[in-house]
Amino acid sequence: MPTVELGPSSLLWRYAGDTRIAFLGGTIGLLQLMYPAIGAGVLEHSNFFEDPADRVFRSLPRILGAVYDGVASYDTGRQIRDFHRSIRGTDAAGRRYHALDPATFWWAHATFQFMAEQVADRFDRHRLSIEERERLYLEGVAWYRRYGVSDRIVPHDRAGFQAEWDRVCTEVLEMNEAVRFVLSALDAPLPPMGDRAAVPAPLRPVADQPLVRRLLRHPSRLVAVGGLPAAVRERFGIRWTSADQVQLQLIEQTVARTWRFLPPTVRWQPSAYAAWQRERGTVP
Ligand code: HEM
What we know:
The protein has 284 residues and is mainly α. It has one domain. It has 16 helices and two strands. The chain has helices at residues 11-15, 25-34, 36-45, 54-68, 73-83, 102-123, 130-145, 158-172, 177-185, 204-207, 210-215, 217-226, 230-235, 242-258, 264-267, 270-280, and strands at residues 88-90, 96-98. The protein has a two-stranded antiparallel sheet with strand order 1-2. The two termini are 30 Å apart. The structure holds protoporphyrin IX containing FE. The site of protoporphyrin IX containing FE has 21 residues, from helix 3, helix 4, helix 5 and helix 6.
């Protein structure tokens, strides 16, 4: 596999810390929880039922740190790995799991690579060329190597990634208690989230308004469920209509066309914003 640089000129810097990743949060949360070992690990080792989004919000600044922290990103990656040493156990079906099992840890990461690519494909006006898609993939592999977890099962190229992604979606993912819980939470108003570090400061005062949380319920469900691969929705009988599809496309196109008019403090995650300032003295 060719070695690639992860810095301000990488595509990963352009997409991973873009606040539009928020539109993928529900989808990748579901795809992670559907992976049996991750669903079990999260149920057993986190405050999932009290606050299902807490793990994502708390983890995100550190996860992006492994992309944007410069020389410190290797330490950030290894700290993340070491945090998971004790996340192990036996799931409801009696299968043993460990977060650092290479296939399990890779699947969690695969969803983050999917997230960065989907920001470009669905919420941005730029169309990735074949070469750019390949480069973004390889940069995602360089990101994974910062964790110091075995990379022996990591696909060598974007085509290999797609094959393994499709296999996991059709053969490995399963419905479980955690997934059912998130799907039913998507039918309720959004929880308050204004005090989370991953919410850009200008959005915090509005994020907690009850009316805003109620209005965002339907679009949030559309974006979370609509982002799932169709094969996954069909396998688990998750409701999705052609009217949903039309509304989702409207949301994607609106975001793609208007995003550039928002201030940089909203467009970038705080850790990415700080990294652009550090490396370039300015924010794209
Ligand atoms: C690339 C893969 C992964 C990354 C980047 C990642 C990242 C993180 C981070 C940054 C945290 C927060 C640590 C802290 O609070 O200091 C965390 C917590 C956690 N992770 Fe992961 N993780 C990954 C894979 C996994 C996997 C495969 C599992 C399950 C099998 C898992 C289960 C958990 C659990 C249960 C917590 C604790 C949440 C809590 O404290 O409530 N993670 N993860």
